[in-house]
Amino acid sequence: KSANPQWREQFDFHYFSDRKDMLDIEVWRKDNKKHEELLGTCHVDITALPTKQTNCLELPLEKHPGSLLMLIAVAPCTGVSISDLCVCPLADPNERKQISQRYCIKNSFRDIKDIGFLQVKVLKAVDLMAADFSGKSDPFCVLELGNDMLQTHTVYKNLNPEWNKVFTFPIKDIHDVLEVTVFDEDGDKPPDFLGKVAIPLLSV
């Protein structure tokens, strides 16, 4: 019930600097659970923004009244990675030793914001639901921690996909919950939901 909403949300996106990426933003309104209406769109050319600083942007909505006020910072990414299982970042004994020293008790107050990181190995799924008429699915897996999101590649025509990927997240809040969701890729249509599991960090 507001024409001047304040969200105050922060989202982290990870992209490679050699790509020409546009950040596409849509604003929607909800009347109820079933009815939604698009209030406008705007676009930001990420490559045109100065790096290593916070850019305050007021973006007018295209073909609609109103504007969005956003803070966008383009900075080198730390602590987030995607790798194959055979080159797992924690497999190196020297790296494990460095990490143990970094998070030992005597260094715990050196950087208060550096809580730690979470490494997740996504191996495979078993006996997924068939989403296609062929009796198969095209599954991929999405991992969300706070407002960070990473995903696997799609394994086509398979109910028992093997991804064998390693994901590393920086932890910003020890009370966050890791959400792992499996979807069926459906071409240009929104993906179909195949299942989900939630894992509180405090249970790890």
Automatic annotation (TrEMBL):
Topological category with respect to the lipid bilayer: Multi-pass membrane protein
**Cellular-component GO terms for this entry:** synaptic vesicle membrane
Instruction: Domain (C2): give its ranges.
Output: 1-59, 93-204
- State the Gene Ontology BP annotations: regulation of neurotransmitter secretion
Q: Which UniProt keywords apply?
A: Calcium, Membrane, Metal-binding, Repeat, Transmembrane, Transmembrane helix
Q: Where in the cell is it found?
A: Membrane
Source organism superkingdom? Eukaryota
User: What does the similarity note say?
Assistant: Belongs to the MCTP family.
Q: Under what name is this protein listed?
A: MCTP2 protein
Q: What is the lineage of its organism?
A: Eukaryota, Metazoa, Chordata, Craniata, Vertebrata
Gene that produces this protein: Mctp2
